[in-house]
Amino acid sequence: MSSKSKVVKPKFVIEPCSINVKVGSEHGNAALTHYLHNKNGVSHFYKDEATNQVKRMLEYNYPDNETTNQVAEEALQYFLFDFKKDVPFPEPIAPKFKFIDLFAGIGGFRLALQNLGGKCVFTSEWDEQAKKTYQANFGEIPFGDITKDSTKAFIPDGFDVLCGGFPCQAFSIAGKRGGFEDTRGTLFFDVAEIIKQKQPKAFFLENVKGLFNHDKGKTLKTILNVLREDLGYYVPDPKVMNAKNFGVPQNRERIFIVGFRKDLNIDSFEYPLPVSKSVTFQDVREEKEVSVKYYLSETYLNTLVKHKERHASKGNGFGFEIIPDDGIANAVVCGGMGRERNLVVDDRLTNFIPVTHIKGNVNREGIRKMTPREWARLQGFPDNFVIPVADASAYKQFGNSVAVPAIQATAEKIIQIIQARK
């Protein structure tokens, strides 16, 4: 658009805040935000539904006025140029490759690949709280349930890399060869189906370390058989990667699976080596005094101590753990134990008056939970990453996320290879 060109403001307009109004179809707001963030070549996949959503919004905001398709089109085009892209992590100005983000969570994969110059052209995530965090940071609302054909219909053609941290599920493969059809009813089936239909140059999948032994190894064997034999991709042996080897002080092991389309003639892949940077909890610790709400009550702390003592008497190592400033955190995971196994000592508290309902007084030993921001740093998220949800949701979201630096280091290797095949 030339500097002299002007976009005429239509009679009826919609404001950016209206995007969060739940009107219309389940895909309406996702399609609208995806349209606003994409340009020629991809935007047409979203334009019809985006226009329909604008029409619904106008009808919602201006119920006494007739909203024609032409009015909706004019409002959409005005919105396109008026749309505020002042999100913390905008798309690269001149992207080097395109990718899609499945089971996106709060965007760990997206952050890593955008850092490498990638443009995300489609994303899906079913959790509503995670969607709020994703939108706050990337300006897009993810599409929902990826198992639905109506959701898959919005996936554009021509992207380079498929990314996803799909959940681990057992397959019904008794007496069968463990192929594509045997994965039906699982979320991996939907990933494989998208790869089969869209034929990306590469894929990058992440899962828990336990996938290696899941269902006595049958699950991973089936996954690799589908990717290699049924889909025809070159898939090097998966590797367990630890976040602590990539610049964050967290002992987090995850299995990475990468693959390349066979016509690219790629027959080798080297996972990234650990970085030399040594970090400890001190490097991610809050710089200022944190709220008393993160400090354990004497009653709660006493319960944890007794619980650990009971297990210790049985020869078990279960129970809470305090991470020293010069130590490495345990894996941050969902659930109470994810926080209880990552307690810290912080004696900077000056106000011991509880701000939440607790049993007993606040402990005077300085023992507290890590904050959501500290968990974000343990996962490699920068400090300008917005946390718009309550603490309970934030812990869950960062616990479910990927460790960004480990993802980025591996993705960089993938991108280098496929770009060398242009």
Automatic annotation (TrEMBL):
EC primary class: transferase
One record GO biological process: DNA restriction-modification system
Residue numbers annotated as active site: C168
Any Pfam family the entry gives: DNA_methylase
InterPro entries referenced in this protein's UniProt entry, alphabetically: C5-MTase, C5_DNA_meth_AS, C5_MeTfrase, SAM-dependent_MTases_sf
Keyword annotations from UniProtKB, A to Z: Methyltransferase, Restriction system, S-adenosyl-L-methionine, Transferase
Example of a GO MF term: DNA (cytosine-5-)-methyltransferase activity
Coiled coil: none
EC numbers: 2.1.1.37
Catalytic activity: a 2'-deoxycytidine in DNA + S-adenosyl-L-methionine = a 5-methyl-2'-deoxycytidine in DNA + S-adenosyl-L-homocysteine + H(+)
NCBIfam families: dcm (TIGR00675)
Family listed: Belongs to the class I-like SAM-binding methyltransferase superfamily. C5-methyltransferase family.
Protein name: Cytosine-specific methyltransferase
UniProt source species: Fluviicola taffensis (strain DSM 16823 / NCIMB 13979 / RW262)
